Amino acid sequence: MRVTLIGAVVAALLTAGCDRQSPDQSQANAAAAVAARPGEPGLDRSQAGKPMPTVTILDGDGEETSLAAVAGGKPLLVNLWATWCAPCVKELPTLDKLSAQPGAPQVMALSQDMQPQPTVSAFLDEKKIGLESYQDKEMAVSGALGVQILPTTILYGSDGKEIWRWSGDLDWTSAKAAELLEQAK
């Protein structure tokens, strides 16, 4: 019985992403949350039209900034991730490749890690990820957005309003991702 329960939790972790709430909560709850979202698996349009949160985050130099400042009036793809989240780390290289594609939206990998900013930057350097290291160690963005699962990626239009969000990992260089990203305006 115990082996079956452990297997179920591991399966939920691999398919649904990481639950950022607390280590003692079941990852099976995270899988149920993704499955309950409207639309395609992982896709949620229920927050479409809401403005991006106006909270302070840190850039790669540890300086305060905001999502709007990074977006600069252009579409912004915000990926909420953490170094301890295996699905998050798995998708980072595809986000890095996406960011180099012509016509791609601005890509922001926003770490939810609580360690000092240089630790997050060093992690990205070690993994050879060229994305700038943004950090939200207070988890103000994920809190303002009601995000419970990592990774979660949110697409904002040039008007600063949410278009959709994707819960769980995705290959951001795939045909599925290209179809979703066509909606950036």
Automatic annotation (TrEMBL):
Pfam families assigned to the protein according to its UniProt record, in alphabetical order: Redoxin
Region listing for Disordered, in residue ranges: 29-53
Chief localization: other
CDD domains in the cross-refs: TlpA_like_family
Location(s), subcellular: Cell envelope
PROSITE patterns linked: PROKAR_LIPOPROTEIN, THIOREDOXIN_1, THIOREDOXIN_2
Superkingdom of the organism of origin: Bacteria
Gene3D superfamilies given in the database record: Glutaredoxin
Domain Thioredoxin residues, every copy: 46-185
Protein name: Thioredoxin domain-containing protein
Organism per entry: Sphingomonas astaxanthinifaciens DSM 22298
Taxonomic path: Bacteria, Pseudomonadati, Pseudomonadota, Alphaproteobacteria, Sphingomonadales
